[in-house]
Every structure is written in C-alpha cells, then in structure tokens.
Amino acid sequence: MKSPSTTFSLLFSLSFLPAFADHPTLSLEDGSPGPITTISAVTLSEGALSVAQVNQFIFFDGLSDAELLAYSGRPDHVHSTDRVISSSLNAAYGMNDDFTLGFSLPFLWRTNLREAVEQRTGVNGVQTTLEPTPKHGGVSHGGGGHGGAPTRPVVENVGDSDGLGDATMYAQYRFLHDEGADRHLSVITGMKMPTGDTNVRANEGYLLAAHHQPGSGSWDPMLGLAFTQGAGRWSFDASTLYIFANDGVRNSNLGDVFNYNAAVSYRLLGAHEEGVAHREGVTHEHPTTLDLILEANGDFRDEVVESNLIDPNTGGNVVFLSGGTRLAWGHSWAATLSVGAPVLEDLNGIQSEPVMRLLFGVSKAF
User: Fold this and answer.
1) pTM of the complete model
2) C-alpha distances in angstroms, 120 versus 66, 79, 140, 308?
3) Number of domains in the chain
4) Which residue segment(s) compose the domain that 216 sits in?
5) pLDDT > 90: what percent of the chain?
C-alpha cells in the first residue's frame, strides 16, 4: 500500500493551488518515508481509498499605511494582505496499482485586505470615501466623485475575502516501477474546475477584483511529473506541476502556475523493511512510524490579466525551504506538520511579501 507521503503529498499539493506557493497532502502507511508537499511518484494500491483534511497558512509582511499612501494615485492599485488560509477536503482511490484518481475541494480566506483610496470633502464638510477605481476592468459600484473639494488618499480596510474555492479532479499514472531499485516515475494530469465563489464584496459593498476572489471562474488543465527514489530509510522525491490558466470571471486570467519541488525524507522511528520501501502490501508488526522531511518548494506565477490589461503588481517566483514531520499509526492514520520560510523571492511590482508557511493535515486510509 502507498506511503503517507504519496497520496497525502499529491492532495496537499493540489488543495492549495489558489494560494501563493501552496500545496496539499493525503497519506497511506506502508512503512515508507516520503515528502509532504512534493508530489510522490508512488500511486495507491488497487482498491485503496484515502481521505484527508489538510490546511495551509501563508503569513505576509503586510504593507504599512505609509507605504500604501505613498503608492496611491498609481493607475495600478497596490493592495496589502496579512495572510492566506486554505482548508481542504481530499479523497483518492486506487483504480489499480499504477493508476490513482483523486479530488480536492478547498475553502479559502484572505484576511485584512487594505488599500489606499481617495476621500473627498463634501460641500458641507462631510467626508466621503470613494470606492477604488476599477483596476484593469474590475467591478465597482458607486464612487466617481460627486462634487466637493479635491480628493486626498486614505487607507481603507477593504475587509476579508472568504468562500469556497475551485475544486480539482486529477489522475496519476505510474509508468515506471522498478521494484528492485525502488524507483518510480509518474505523470499527473487534471482539471481545476470553476466551483469557487466569485462574488465576494468589500466592506464598502463593491465587488472585489477577480484575483481576490476565492474562485477563478475558469477551467484550468494541469500536467506534471513526479519521481521517487527509495534507499532504505531514505526517500528522494522531485515533482513539477504546470497549471494552464484560462479566462475566467469578468474577463480575467489569473495567470499560469508552475510548481517545482524537491524533497529528502528519513524514517527516524518505527519499523522499516530494507529493500521494499515502496512495495505494495507491506505490513509491519509495529506500524507506528515517524519521518523527518526537508523540502524546497518553488512557485512561479504569471501576472494577472483583467480586461486585456496586465496587473504589474501580481505574479513572480517564490521558493520555500521547509522542515516537516509525519507521524503514522495503526496502518490507517497519519498526521503531518511542515513549517517553511522563503529563501528566494522575486515578486513583480509592489506586493505583500510572504514570511512563513505552515502546513498541517490528518488523513485516514481504508
């Protein structure tokens, strides 16, 4: 049966696609070490079912009020956010020993969105906050200046954006399985579907920009590769996944995404059978295990396009270095925890920079 690192890592990777530099995971214990967010090439055993609840928190260094005011008046609005949270329900089923089907459904939060907006002093001295000018085709309701003194910028608490995210269906096919060398190679393909909420509004009532919505409104195919090499208590994994973004809600395109990952895992505690690290059907007299995992997870995103105009304050490249652990027990349960920090940041324009990523999840195999 598949290891806690395999389905758990693929589902973990897919569950967090709407967030920046994210990943989900699902887990089945067979006595094998393996990664958390890097996708393992090992597929589920035939007839095996795995379900999981996985979570991700990305904490940002939000822009200060002074910084937002300094960037006000630009044709491209600058926003700040404190954190992005994803909580997902996932499931996977082994059609045969080399072919797995899976599903992921996330719920997303973006907290404390802020931006500089104009405030006009009315004829009677009444302060009126104007809604932001629609950014590159974004939707606004109201605003537009109804007389009064010249405008001046103020920082507005736009609010939070939360709701159901886009679901993902995927298939993983292992086309290389060298049991003697414990080497595996798989292809992953799937589709992100427009199930997410796209009508979340700001505190002032206007519709948030498309890239701040939980859902995209687009059908986005994906394609990737995963490689796993077992070596006794060690496992070495690498994976790539490319998401082809199509046009979605309100004539927007949120940009292609390229995830690239590498991981090394070590079985610190618990039973391990030398030479059969990823063999299907492995059982042990003492199933409780503890793995240590070190990963590098990269995330490259294109800039957002709205109404045929590029938003220069979106997209870029981030690489997280993460340390994690997995506790598995009873041949059916597994709990995973990973903490990471960015070691490479190359963001476009003016954006809130990520400072930490926390991942955790629990899975059950049947």
Assistant:
1) 0.84
2) 19, 20, 17, 30
3) 1
4) 7-365
5) 61
